[in-house]
Input
Amino acid sequence: MSITSEVPVPVSVGRLQTALGSALRARVAGQDASVRAARIWDTPGERWFTEDDPVWRVHADAAMFPGGVAALLLQMLHPMAMAGVAGHSGYRGDPWGRLQRTSTYLAATTFGTVEHALETIGHVRDIHERVRGKDALGRSYHASDPHLLRWVHVAEVRSFLQAYQAFARRPLTEDEADTYVAQAGVSAAHLGVLDPPGSVAALEEQLLAYRGELAATEAARDAARFLLTEPPLPVATRPGYWAIAAGGLAVLPRWARVELGLPASPALSRTLLRPLGRASTSTVRWAMAGVARDREQDAAA
Output
């Protein structure tokens, strides 16, 4: 009997690929991910973007995994944003639920029909209207505040872009990067962000303008520890998560890492964090390709 017939490598590898991809999708998008995906991808109608647009390419790539980690760490440096997360998101009690809601929002506003995107944005705006309180410094905050919304948007877009440029197979050109920033601002404007940046230069300028408002509160440091060292995952799967988180740290601004008390050595980023981020992103990309392949086969059947 030949080795090929004894060990059907392509089949077993394909099953492993699909199993890993399905597990990742369930974590990020929820157990009903296939139902959500059907509405987002299969519903006919006008869309804001096409698969050739930079925002589509970035938000569909596995680099969103480390990018998402970086975005959460950067966003929590604003005391008001952190107070909203700590007081209303339930990130400790239901961390995956929060991630799933965020991923659904990004998917609907990037890949879904305009009708679905606006419906999703309207739902989030309704939630924001109810989220208010006081931050660690005793200042009142309101999640629908355009200034606070813009911080969340700028931190998110900057993180996604940096992760894509670091870990994608084909990074965006300078013009494409500017287009990505502008396209990411379409849904943000509907959400209530005033003057979202329209280029990388404007993005960096707006990020810099918030520096004086940023500080790592105790709540932020606690959330960072939870995100990086206490992930709600089985012990056996934590090394894979930590490799993704390493990529997130690698693209986080050095000043943000210093503020949060995280490793900030350029040498560490170059020799360990970026290689781990690149390897883990490639693994996620491979796994998710299996889910996409099976979905295409099911659609063609």
